[in-house]
Amino acid sequence: MSYCVNPSCAQPKNPNNVAVCQSCGSQLRLKKRYQPLGILGKGGFGATFGAADLSLPGNPICVVKQLRPASDDPQVYKMAKELFEREAETLGKVGNHPQVPRLLDFFEQNKEFYLVQEYVKGYNLYWTLDKKSLLAYILR
């Protein structure tokens, strides 16, 4: 399955063999390299996707974080771009720390910004905390 990263797309799930979203017409591959497979989470400023890196043997899974500027205003866009570049630079500097997923790539596409990081297998922190809270409540 391919997943459309257009936040306005009504039907983001697509078959693997298509290049553009069947619902909204957006390109499905990012940077002609990353194929989003599904959404991992989303918030007010963007979304996070699991993706396959099609440029490497075995198409390893990575995490693609999408940052959408809050407005079309040129000043907002400029500020968002500066913050994005600063975050990418910071992640690049701490990339060898064992507790931080390594930054693999960063780029801009269609006035949206993307960070590509190493995929770390494990549980979602929110889910883990939620389960522990539920367990603590049950054991009272």
From TrEMBL:
- Coiled coil regions, renumbered to chain: none
Which residue numbers delimit the Protein kinase domain? 34-140
> Pfam families per the record?
Pkinase
Give the protein's recorded name: non-specific serine/threonine protein kinase
Q: Does the keyword Transferase apply?
A: yes
| One Gene Ontology MF term | ATP binding
Catalysis: reaction(s): L-seryl-[protein] + ATP = O-phospho-L-seryl-[protein] + ADP + H(+); L-threonyl-[protein] + ATP = O-phospho-L-threonyl-[protein] + ADP + H(+)
Under Gene3D superfamilies, the record lists:
Phosphorylase Kinase, domain 1
InterPro entries noted in UniProt: Kinase-like_dom_sf, Prot_kinase_dom, Protein_kinase_ATP_BS
Q: Mind telling me which PANTHER family this protein's record contains?
A: SERINE/THREONINE PROTEIN KINASE, SERINE_THREONINE KINASE LIKE DOMAIN CONTAINING 1
Q: Does the keyword Metal-binding apply?
A: no
Give the enzyme's main class according to its UniProt record, as a single word.
transferase
Give the species this sequence originates from: Crocosphaera watsonii WH 8501
Positions of ATP binding: K65
So what EC number does this one have? 2.7.11.1
Report keywords, A-Z.
ATP-binding, Kinase, Nucleotide-binding, Serine/threonine-protein kinase, Transferase
